[in-house]
Amino acid sequence: MAKQFAELSDQHRAFIERQHIFFTATAAPTGRVNVSPRPTTALKVLSPNTVAYLDRTGSGNETAAHLRQINRMTIMFCAVDGPPQIMRLYGKGQILRHGTAAYAELLESVFSGEEPLGARQIVRLDFDLVQTSCGYGVPLYDYQGERPSLDNWAAAKTPEEMEAYQREKNQVSIDGFPTGMFEEA
């Protein structure tokens, strides 16, 4: 049975800390809905109603494009080992672009100033609803570790090559919506 809460409790935080993956969901008023997996190593709980994750360069940048149009966002965690549970955080997302003062401040204060290769933005979610549900239908999986693929891919690129890739792949969504990635701050 689903339960709703106005903020994260200590038990909710403990659940988040035990997970290895989370999913983000965004949608513009038109076009496609985007759902993306992320590693929880990139996510930090900032307060009972705010989380942020350090987002790295990928083959697209749908989240940024959608949040520019309408800032609705959901983050979902689901237990794939241990007791079953699903948790969703519903709220308003914001992109803190690489190179901006807001990005640098949060990177330093929350992520210990450590920026992985290919970091492109921090996504912040201010939420007003936490919903948990049973998760009985989620299959059990064994966590084997983080994939080195993204680190290896980013390490093989010079800063100039990374920027060229981002300019080619990360400036516009698959529906043609701008991400704002290289706009002046």
TrEMBL record:
InterPro entries: Pyridox_Oxase_N (IPR011576), Split_barrel_FMN-bd (IPR012349). It comes from the Bacteria. It holds the Pfam family PNPOx_N. Residues 9-134 form the Pyridoxamine 5'-phosphate oxidase N-terminal domain. This is Pyridoxamine 5'-phosphate oxidase family protein.
